[in-house]
Design a protein that fits this description.
Elements (H helix, E strand, L loop, with lengths): L5 H13 L3 H13 L1 H29 L4 H25 L12 H9 L2 H15 L6 H10 L5 H18 L3 H21 L1
Length: 195
Amino acid sequence: MPIALLPSFLFTMIVVGYTPGPANLYSLACCLKYGRRKSLKMWRGLLCGFSLAACIMVVLTHILGEIMGQYVLFLKYIGAAYILWLAWKLWRSKGKEDTEAKDCSFLSGFMVQFTNAKMLLFELTAFSVYVLPYSHSILDLFVVAALLLIAGPLANLAWLYAGAYLRRFFSRYRQQVDIVMALLLAACAVYIIVS
């Protein structure tokens, strides 16, 4: 990638990574409901899911190039279904205290991020716009994938800590917060399907 494209790439990463999306909203919802400590376990799942998905996308992009874009779209339906399931679980809880935090686990974080169509499509776009026109080196693809950690797991962590900061305030409105977060997650799933 030419150095002249770096500002554009960084701006795009910030806009895509830090705006509301399934993993960011899930991070916020988990932290509001279960607190920072339990949510950090889920965040490690987000980190691993993102990292594995990014590595798979690098290898597939290197082997297949832009042809694979049509197959990534299939994952959006799986991701949307999983996000809808999470929204339904959150809706059903309606403010009930859950000390087990089953829905805020490493595995749930991993699945949210591994099937996050927003990030998968962004990775594919970043590779096709910022790397493939200038290089076909797998190393260059991995460098960009590593930079994308700023847009993925680091953004999720920022949302998680925002939830930790706001948790005391929102604890008085637990039922309303669960309903709003469930609706926002459902809206993300619908957006993923129609976009």
